[in-house]
Amino acid sequence: MVQENGVLVGMKHYPAAVKADAVALYRSRPGATIKSVAGDLGVNTETLRNWIRTSDGRRLGAHLASPAAAQADGAGVQAELAAARKRIRELEEERDILGKAARYFATETRW
Question: Against a cut of 0.70, is the pTM above it?
Answer without folding.
Answer: no
